[in-house]
What we know:
alpha/beta, four-stranded antiparallel β-sheet, globular, binds magnesium ion
Amino acid sequence: MDLKSNHSSPVLTDSAPLSKLRLGLPSNMSPYSPAASPYSSSGLYLTIPRIINGKLEDVRVNGWLDAMIASSPPRKKLSKDIIYESQTDDHDAAYQTWMISYPSALNSFHLITSYAKCKTVALFLDYDGTLSPIVENPDHAFMSSAMRAVVKEAAIYFPTAIISGRSRDKVHEFVRISELYYAGSHGMDIMGPVRVSNSIDVHPDCIKTIDSQGKEVHLFQPANEFLPMINEVYKSLIEVTSDIIGIKVENNKFCVSVHYRNVDNKMWDEVGVRVFGLINGYSRLHVTYGRKVLEVRPVIDWNKGKAVEFLLESLGLSQRDDVLPIYVGDDRTDEDAFKILRESKCGFGILVSNAPKETTSAFYSLRDPSEVQEFLKSLVRWRKSTALQTENIASEYI
Ligand SMILES: [Mg+2]
């Protein structure tokens, strides 16, 4: 199966299963790998600013401030502490135009299920902003019981994994569904099933262990050696930002998130000065941008896209043309997964956004977590009905 965009909807052509070699586990994992440089020409990562004569270079200050603003569109409060990107009539018209290129996964449901027919659908779900609403306090990003029920049911019919920027333990605490696979810290901390796979078993950062249910699992932590450095940086970031009102520094095990959604926007440049000023001293760390969050991450060639490949491999679903991976996410970091699926032509991404995004490698869109819930519910309903049809057809021949 091969998905190609015709700017109105994806089109299926020939199959090209994910290659084991593309995991690149042994050769690309080194923190010193040139491929892992933060000085990316893609523009995803900004160069780390230098202090010149006691002052940060202006152009670069503007660079990170622009990136912080661009990653954090204005929001409005809907209820309690739930917030969404604000919308105007102009904005809505722009969104409708944008949806021509990235159609609603709900409106395109029949097309999606026509791709999925007779295939194993593998679901990869981001957490914040995808399964839970974005909230003022990141510690309160709870998923609804209705969403939990639908994800739990989806996991019965489809191999399902949560891939989050949060620590694996924290996202597991939020989701509380044992039937899922979890990848925390943007895929740098994966607990997945034990399968026979040469490329996985030989990797030194992948070990067999026992999970809380007593099941044997694979634990893959490619950034293990960065743990002491991340802990040190976490403590230093708390210290250097302690006088900024509203800031929240979160230790996500293999990365540190600096949330500035509750910081007065006049202070955003100060947030950047403090964070980049500190990270400047760590050549093996870099900073990426999310929604009102700066994330300090190890410089390794690993991301949510690599995590998807790893999980497909672990699940025994790579190298097969009867598998349709679907990744649903709302953040810039999810683009790595969208890109992997688009380039491998074996599945597709669904971007959760109620505002048009300048660039995305997703094929489809959903407005918000309530539409994600509806989509997952429809997918389960569809799978149940096709299973029933198959049983009925089989029973006619008995
Ligand atoms: Mg998210």
